[in-house]
Amino acid sequence: MINKSFIKVKSSFGQEIENLYFTHSSKANSIVILFPGSDYSCDRPILHYARKVALLSGCDVLSLEYGSFNSSKETLDDFLDRIIKESYEAVQSCLANTYENIYFISKSLGTIVAGEISELIGYKKANNLFLTPIKDTEKYIMKSSCSIVVGTNDKFFSRKDVDDIENPNVDIHIIEGAVHSLEVDDYIKSIQILNDVTKICADFVKHDR
């Protein structure tokens, strides 16, 4: 049986952020934490199916939410700093349950949040799958044993960026023709890409288990 609850975090602007937390009735020894993009929530297809395969694999799952950007009170850098702080608080609440395996699956902007939190808890503790990383994620990729998924037509992480990765411990998955959303103009091919990426996620959460 899978139970649903919320890890609640109070933001600096007074918002209460509800992070969805799925746990198995019998204690799981692994947790998957989903880091959405700035405009790509955990309910969008790639992260939705990543969550589904994680639960079917016996992992607990935390789906992070970010508070809204307040353009009158903060810069984009301030916003990023805030969501890292708030996400870290939610992650720490879950990790108090003492999991043997910790998996981070992140998308776009979320790859930076996952990278920063990996530094805080230690790269050896967190296994990272960076989906469509952005340029600023490169420093975290270089420091960790991780996997990345990127499309050849992704304008935020080019083929040159992929070629510049000088870390032999990175497992790289290249999706031919895909843009940043990991889609192409053909919807049948886009569904196949979704299937392929979901399989990558399924294999990732089975690693070392």
Please give a structural write-up:
- The chain is of the alpha/beta class and 209 residues long.
- It has one domain (2-205): Rossmann fold.
- The protein has helices at residues 45-56, 76-95, 109-121, 138-143, 159-163, 187-205; strands at 2-10, 16-24, 30-35, 60-63, 101-107, 126-131, 146-151, 170-175.
- An eight-stranded mixed beta sheet has the order 1-2-4-3-5-6-7-8, with helices on both faces.
- Helix 3 (109-121) links the parallel strand 5 and strand 6 (126-131).
- Helix 1 runs parallel beside helix 6 and helix 2 crosses helix 3 (109-121).
- GO terms for molecular function: hydrolase activity.
- Fraction of residues in H or I helices: 25-40%
Give the strand line-up of the largest sheet: 1-2-4-3-5-6-7-8
> What's the end-to-end separation, in Å?
20 Å
Strand content: 25-35%
General shape: globular
Round the Cα radius of gyration to an integer and report it.
Answer: 16 Å
What is the tally of beta strands? Answer: 8
Figure out the total of helices. 6
CATH class: Alpha Beta
Organism: Clostridium omnivorum
Keywords: Hydrolase
GO molecular function: hydrolase activity
InterPro entries: AB_hydrolase_fold, UCP033634
